[in-house]
Structures are given as structure tokens and as C-alpha cells.
Amino acid sequence: MIAGNVLPIRTPEGIEFALPLAGPFSRMLALAIDLAAIAAFNYALQKILGALAIFGQDVAGGLSVVLYFLLTLLYATLAEWFWRGQTIGKRVLGLRVVDARGLRLEPAQVIVRNLLRFLDALPLFYLVGGAACVLNRYHQRLGDLVAGTVVIRTPQIAAPDIDKLLPRKYNSLAESRHLAARLRQKVTPELARIGLEALLRRDRLDPAARLAVFADLAARFRAMVPYPIEVTEQLADEQYVRDVVAIVYHSSAGSFAPASKSAGPER
Length: 267
Description:
Low-confidence stretches: 252-267
Largest sheet: 2 strands, antiparallel
Order of helices and strands: EEHHHEHHHHEHHHHHHH
Distance between the termini: 34 Å
Mean pLDDT: 82
Number of helices: 14
Radius of gyration: 22 Å
Structural class: mainly alpha
Number of domains: 2
Strand order of the largest sheet: 1-2
Shape: elongated
């Protein structure tokens, strides 16, 4: 059993891994940064809409309240969707929203957790959400509990020696540089970590489970970035996963590091 301040996840094939959870303090720091960003956006917006004051202070004041509400909601929702679970504050502190079951984060989850943000903010200074984070085993606020999400830390992963995991001199997927670059962009840190864990533990799985694990992972990677059939037709699923993991963790500078996830969401 995985211990500590983590979210343990076990796949049906028997692979167990853990996502390090963000604590209440780091989440509040990220929130403070996000509120500062929202305030800056709102200030710029009010300057732009200052001309509406000619229609009366009541109209301008009412519109300001509505726009601030929409800005607060849209900022977090759009940022977490297009930045794959991150806002400005979360990016600064290395945090990310993920599905609590280890699955892909869905748009509905992002929307629900942010709609309930206003309930978490009650009565003042996010007291309800903060109390929920402190008391909940996985540090989930109410929005997380309803949406089925958690906030995790995304520390740098130690450089894996891919050649020792599955020795091979030639990586045919890496030869298509533009497709390899898209893989680094598309594959999330969580899925890359699962692929790495599968390679590390492949010898502990029974043959049927091993085939199922790598067939599923290879299918996910193939769907993200389709390669020409002549490049992949001779690759077994396990080798395909190995080559993708090597590409994702191997930066152009020659060191291993997870790729940056500033691109748009997976489709």
C-alpha cells in the first residue's frame, strides 16, 4: 500500500502509483496569486468600460459586478481547461487539477468545480473551502468533492534511464521530429508517469496483464499523435510505449524532463 500525503491509484491490471497531493497552504498561496491576477484583469477591464459611466453610476456599477463575477468564473474555467488543470497561481507553484481516479480531466469536471467555487468562498476568505481542505483526507474543497477532482503537486521527476528499461539503439518514432514534438506537447505528465511505471514494473505482471497494460497505453499514445503506418507497423505495444516515454522524457538539450504543458487540451 502507498503511504503518505498522496492519492493512491491502482489500475485494473495491477499497476499501482501515487499522485502527490497539494496541501491547503500551497493551494491558498495559488489562490492568492489567482485573485491578484483577476484583480489586475478586472482593473484593465474597468478602464476599458469606463465610458459606460455616461449611462449612469447605477448602470456602470451593476455591470461592473456582473463582469467581475463572469471574469472570476471564466478565468479559472478557461485556464484549467486550456492549461490542463492549471491557472497562473497553480503554474507558479507547480500544482495541477486532475481527475481523482487518475483518468483524463473532463470539461464538465472543470466547469462544476469552478461553479462551486463561490460556495467554497463562503462566508468570507474561502472559509468553507479551506475547512473542507483541512478536514478532507485528500485535501479536496467542496468543488473538488462534487467534480471528482484533486489538486496535486507536479515536481520534476528524476531522469529515468530509458535504455536500461528496454534497451534499443533505434527509436523510429523520434525520427519524425515534428511528430515527436507533438507527442511532448500532447502527453500529460500523469500519463507519461503511468507509462514509465508500467515499464519499470513490467516484469512483475503476469503475461496477460502485461499485454493488456501496454495495449491500452499504446492505444492512447497512438490516438494522441498518429504516425504513418510504415513507421509503427513493426512495433509491439510495449516497444511503442517505451519509444513514446523516451521521447516525452528526453528534452532537446539531452536531459530528461517532463514536457511543458502550456498547450491546449487533448482532443
